[in-house]
Amino acid sequence: MKKKELNVHVLAEMAVLVAIILLMAFTPLGYMPTPWGIQITLIVIPVAVGSIILGPKAGAFLGLVFGLTSFANAFSNAMGMMFLEVSVLRTMILLIGNRVLVGLIPGLLFQAFKGSPKMRTIGTVICCFLTPVTNTVLYIVGNWLMFKDTWLGSSLTADYSGDGGISLLGFMLAMVAVNGIAEAIASTVIGTAVCTALQKTVNREAAAARSAA
Questions:
Q1: 2-29+36-212 — its CATH code?
Q2: Cβ(64)–Cβ(103) under 8 Å?
Q3: Domain residue spans in the chain?
Q4: Quick one: which H or E segment has residue 134?
């Protein structure tokens, strides 16, 4: 009975995290715009929390939800529409497939840190940091592999120079510098605090379920 109650609790936590992702995806809470058009993605935080607390499978599912919301938002912004005009399939891979890995990879890595409370704390910090970094790196690599000839509406040149003085290389570096740093700091601070609080509750319930089994 206790084990069933624990499963229900896990499903409830999943439902809450999915609701948070949906809320953040369709409000300014999830994507903070910048003056140069790059959005800072804070929606990775609930994905990181779910991946660490509930495991890699839950993380992958939350990443999938994150990806689906990204794909839906692609129909309402200029860059997303540009990607869709080139290839709907490649856009889905970029915005959905990559985000599944964003939830899966930190969850798998965290399994190596679960041995002791001290290692669990270190693992939590590392994985909360890694989640937005993985998101940024996969997004940039995906863009490079699938849209390099059409990114910002201009082909690559030897100097990576685009129309209007916008540089493809500069755009990529700006995304790394602005998005990566801001998202990593936010996810590490907020995600670690949330995970630390939740881990105490989850560990107590898991112990109770094992003793009742």
A1: 1.10.1760.20
A2: yes
A3: 2-29+36-212
A4: helix 117-147
